[in-house]
Amino acid sequence: MLAFIIRRLVQAVIVMLAVALIAFMLFQYVGDPVTNLMGQEATAEQRAQLRADLGLDQTAVVQFARFVGNAVQGEFGLSLRQGRKVSTLVGERFPATLELALVAALIALLLGIPMGVLAALRRGSWMAQLLMGFSLIGVSLPTFLIGILLILLFAVVLNWLPSFGRGELVNLGGWATGLLTLDGWRHLLLPAVTLSIFQLTLIMRLVRAEMLEVLRSDYIKFARARGLSDRTVYFGHALKNTLVPVMTITGLQLGGLIAFAIITETVFQWPGMGFLFIQAVQFADIPVMAAYLCLISLIFVTINLVVDLLYFAVDPRLRVDRAVAAH
Q: Residue 103 falls within a domain, yes or no?
């Protein structure tokens, strides 16, 4: 187990160094930070002085080492667009993105798993056909179109929910959250549902496929031969084994929800990391883009590591295989 963890940690460090190199290349070859900060009117002496202050007159190796050291401390310099520390901007926007992704993941899990089980157990029924048709629509429609349709229906036609912003917030020690207010939930509902639709249908189709596969296995036939009830067979044996690959996919999809919330945040003007990244791209704000790239990569690497450890703990076959290999 320890060797497995160490190997995964080494792989995570290698991935983060590769991402840091890509982010560093943004600083080096996408735009000129001196020109962005001082404008075209600055003299050659002023440019040289700022370049020395930023350490841009040193070798690429020294600059990369300093960049990695600052990134480990969460420092990416100043935003070229807003003139504020990037770490401060990220700290202000990250809670909104994290809450949106977590609520979307919760919706996808709470609805996707039972819908997938129902589609598998009622295979061929009109209910299963309806669910599979819904899943096909959810997988096929682009996220921005789903968001626009939801805004049209619930915000414009029915006027039930707001279509933009984050609503009333409560500050908990520097963490601004809308989960403790009714207005915050009203603003969160539409973007969370929009973001969850694709993940929900993906989980539903995966659970259905895995459930059907498990129900055809020998140990399920043996369980039925022992006289166990359908409830015990379905939920005590089949569903338990179905959730192992679902857990892996769901863990990785949480990182995807955070990383790819850009479209949803743009449609609903949700003040999160994705919306900040879109603004940074429009104004070539390289420090913000680099910080976003490193943060999202760190989230993916961390979630992947946790999922691997959970998978290792849940599935006894992995422990047996590694024990056999060790001997």
A: yes
Which of helix, strand or coil describes residue 70? helix
User: If you search the block for the tokens 């009830």, which residue do you land on?
Assistant: 229
Higher pLDDT, 323 or 7: 7
pLDDT on residue 88: 84
Rg of the chain taking only CA atoms, in angstroms? 24
Q: Which two tokens stand for residue 176?
A: 């601004």
Which residues are bridge partners to 171 per DSSP?
A: 176
Rounded (5°) CA angle 230-233-239: 120
Q: Are residues 102 and 209 in the same domain?
A: yes
Do 108 and 223 belong together in one domain?
A: yes
CB count in 10 Å sphere of residue 313: 11
- Total domains in the chain come to 2
> Range of 15's domain?
2-72
Asked if residue 210 lies in contact with residue 246, where contact means CB atoms within 8 angstroms, the answer is yes
User: Residue 264 has which token pair?
Assistant: 């949803």
Torsion of CA 215, 216, 222, 223, to 10 degrees: 10
Q: Each residue of 11-70: pLDDT tens digit?
A: 888 888 888 888 777 666 666 666 666 666 767 777 777 667 666 667 777 777 877 787
Whole-angstrom Cα distance, residue 252 to residue 77? Answer: 30
How does pLDDT run across 103-143, given as a tens digit for each residue? 998 898 888 888 888 888 778 788 888 888 888 888 888 88
End-to-end CA distance of the chain: 15
CATH number, domain of 108, equals 1.10.3720.10
Task: Please say whether the beta carbons of 137 and 145 come within 8 A.
Answer: no
- Listed in sequence order, the DSSP H helices in 73-142 are 86-121, 126-140
